[in-house]
């Protein structure tokens, strides 16, 4: 049986074009991001000057991820501008759906160490984020509506109606958890829109076969002879479980 060829309006898609510019074959998790709750930050420009994890720390994290075969859902963001503790997102872990040729731009904010997961596993477990530039006033309207529904539910005698209200609020909050506030701007530095973030609201467990590639700098460790790249490819976890996964030096990302 012949394989069906991928085409767009009768034009055959070349192998190298199959995902480029549309969807990615790999989804990336960077481990050197800023150490901050970014719930009230709308633009990546605001991340400038904020302390990030060192390359050494980021490398240790990626080795731990490979060892445990798990991405922990520990990130949280506030849903509303008033920073109400009741309205945080559910804890999540996240990935970015950025084309390979633009990874160097992402690395300027989130470090130069990353793990790339094959898209098949991601589609089963993650949700794409909806980017929104709605005003604080509009978001607060949703906040007030949820508060009003909660208050009315307390006065109701019917448990059935209470459950319907709880389900409705839960659905609204879940959708808000899939919303990231930003501005839309042609300047890559001023908008989260270009990150194409995907979220999973529980720990993401994977197998070595779900990993498509690793990215690690080949710069030398401080006061050491080996590089961060060497540290990864000679580690026990890589040699025993991931030795078929390509490890790409960050320098190559910059040169492509």
Task: List the SSEs and their pairings.
Layout: E1 7-8, E2 11-12, E3 26-30, H1 55-68, E4 70-71, E5 93-96, H2 103-110, E6 114-118, H3 119-125, E7 127-128, E8 130-132, H4 136-155, H5 159-177, E9 179-181, E10 197-200, E11 204-205, E12 211-216, H6 228-233, H7 236-241, E13 247-249, H8 250-255
Parallel strand pairs: 8-9, 12-13
Antiparallel strand pairs: 1-2, 3-6, 4-11, 5-10, 6-12, 7-10
Summary of the model, kept short:
The chain starts with 6 loop residues before the first strand and ends with a helix.
Tally of separate helices: 8
Count of strand segments: 13
Based on helices, strands and strand pairing, what is the structural class? Answer: alpha+beta
Low-pLDDT segments = none
Mean pLDDT: 83
Distance between the amino and carboxyl termini: 37 Å
Strand content bin: 15-25%
Give the biggest sheet.
Answer: 4 strands, mixed
Share of helical residues = 25-40%
SSE string? EEEHEEHEHEEHHEEEEHHEH
| Shape, per Cα inertia axes | elongated
Q: Output the radius of gyration.
A: 21 Å
Order of strands across the widest beta sheet? Answer: 3-6-12-13
Structure description:
- This protein is of the alpha+beta class and 256 residues long.
- It has a domain at 26-34 and 56-131 and 193-255.
- Helices cover 34% and strands 17% of the residues.
- It has eight helices and 13 strands.
- It has helices at 55-68, 103-110, 119-125, 136-155, 159-177, 228-233, 236-241, 250-255, and strands spanning 7-8, 11-12, 26-30, 70-71, 93-96, 114-118, 127-128, 130-132, 179-181, 197-200, 204-205, 211-216, 247-249.
- Strands 3-6-12-13 form a four-stranded mixed beta sheet. The chain has a three-stranded antiparallel beta sheet with strand order 5-10-7, with no helix packed on it. A two-stranded antiparallel ribbon has the order 1-2.
- α4 runs antiparallel to α5 (159-177).
- The two termini are 37 Å apart.
């Amino acid at each position: 049986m012949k394989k069906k060829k991928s085409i767009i309006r009768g034009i055959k898609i070349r192998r190298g074009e199959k995902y480029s510019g549309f969807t990615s074959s790999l989804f990336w998790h960077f481990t050197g991001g800023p150490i901050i709750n970014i719930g009230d930050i709308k633009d990546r420009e605001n991340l400038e000057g904020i302390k990030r994890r060192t390359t050494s720390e980021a490398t240790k994290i990626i080795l731990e991820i490979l060892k445990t075969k798990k991405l922990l859902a520990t990130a949280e963001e506030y849903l509303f501008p008033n920073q109400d503790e009741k309205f945080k997102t559910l804890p999540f872990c996240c990935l970015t759906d950025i084309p390979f040729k633009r990874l160097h731009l992402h690395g300027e904010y989130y470090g130069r160490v990353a793990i790339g997961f094959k898209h098949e596993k991601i589609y089963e477990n993650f949700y794409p984020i909806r980017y929104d530039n709605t005003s604080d006033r509009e978001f607060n309207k949703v906040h007030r509506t949820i508060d009003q529904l909660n208050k009315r539910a307390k006065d109701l005698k019917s448990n059935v109606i209470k459950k319907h209200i709880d389900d409705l609020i839960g659905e609204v909050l879940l959708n808000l958890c899939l919303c990231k506030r930003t501005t839309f701007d042609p300047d890559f530095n001023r908008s989260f829109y270009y990150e194409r973030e995907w979220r999973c609201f529980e720990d993401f467990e994977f197998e070595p076969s779900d990993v498509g590639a690793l990215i690690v700098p080949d710069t030398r460790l401080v006061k050491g002879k080996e590089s961060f790249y060497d540290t990864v490819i000679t580690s026990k976890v890589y040699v025993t479980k991931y030795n078929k996964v390509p490890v790409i030096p960050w320098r190559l990302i910059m040169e492509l």
